[in-house]
User: Fold this.
Amino acid sequence: MSKLSIRGVSKVFAGGTTAVDNVSLDVADGELVCLLGPSGSGKSTLLRMVGGFEQPTSGTIAIDGQDVTRLPPEQRPTGMVFQSHALWSHMNVFANLAFGLKLRRRPASEIRDRVEAVLELVGLKGYGSRMTNELSGGQQQRVAVARSLILEPKILLLDEPFASLDQHLRERLREEVRDIQLRLKITTLFVTHGQDEALSMADRIVVMRNGGTEQADRPDVIYRDPQTPFVAGFIGTMNFIEGRVENGCFKHADVTVDLPVDDGPITLAVRPEALDLVGQGTGQAIIHRVTDFGTHGLVDLHLSDGTRVKSMVRSPEPFSAGQTVSLSPRAFAAFRDNVKLYRTSDAH
Assistant:
C-alpha cells in the first residue's frame, strides 16, 4: 500500500510570489492523479515539493503515514521523471540505470538482473550497452522512466515527461507509461498542461489555477460537469454565450432556452457536440468556416454580438461559409459570478 497525503501545502518564494496556496490532496494506492493547469498554476512546484526538490513554506507531505516534508529527495520513497531526460551522456544505458543501485551497495548480480528486468519492462531489452546519445528522444525518455522505476519507489512523479516529443511519439509513450503504471500498480502523480494527456491517462484530474485547486474529479466528471467557468473553458472546447435570464428563460439574440434560475445576467456554457445547427438560412448566426475532420465536421460561427462559437456536426456537407443558421443547445451549464447555477441532466 502506497498512499500520498498532502495537507495545507503552500509555497511562497523570495519576493512574496505565492506558487502554491494551501493545497490538500490524497492520492490512493495505485492511483494515477494528474495535475493539470496552465503555466504558472503551481502544478510543477507542488510535484517538486512532493519529491523533495522544493521545501514547502507551510503544510505537510506524508507517504504511507510517514511525514516526509523535510526529508531530502534521496531519503524519500519517490522516483522522479523530468521533462529533460537528465541522463548522463558519458555513461551507457546500463550504467545510468545501475547508478542508484550501486549507491545502495546492492550486489552486482542483483543490479544486473534488475537492470535487465526494467529494460524489458520499458521495451528496451538489449539496449544496456548503448550510449544515451545514440538513442532517440523517445528511447531516452524510456530510460528516464526505467531509472525511476528500478529503485522501486512507492510514489512515481512525472513532470511533463513527454512535452519535448512530437505528437505521435507522445501519444504512444503515454499509452506505454500508463500500461506500465497499471501493471506495477504504482501510485503516480503526473504533471501536464495537455488536457488530452490528462483525460486519457488519469484516474483523477486536479485542475490547478493560481496556486490552488479549481476541481478534482474523474476525467469524465471534469469534462461533463465542470464546477467553474475556468474548468469549463480549460478542459476541452467550450462555447460561452453571454445573455440574461428573464422569467425562467435565457435570452440572447441567437439563442433562447428555458433556464429555471433567478433573473439577471448569466453565461451559458455549451460543448460543440451539444450545439445543434438548425434552420439553414433562417437564423442570425453566420458560418465563418467549415472544417472536415473525416469522422465529423467542425463549424465556426459568428453570433450577432460578435461571439465566436463552434458546433460539431456529423457531416460538414450541408454547411458552407457565409450561410446563416439558428442554434439549438441540447445540453448546457449556466454560470453567474463564477458559480455554477444550473446544468441540464443530459451530459455534454
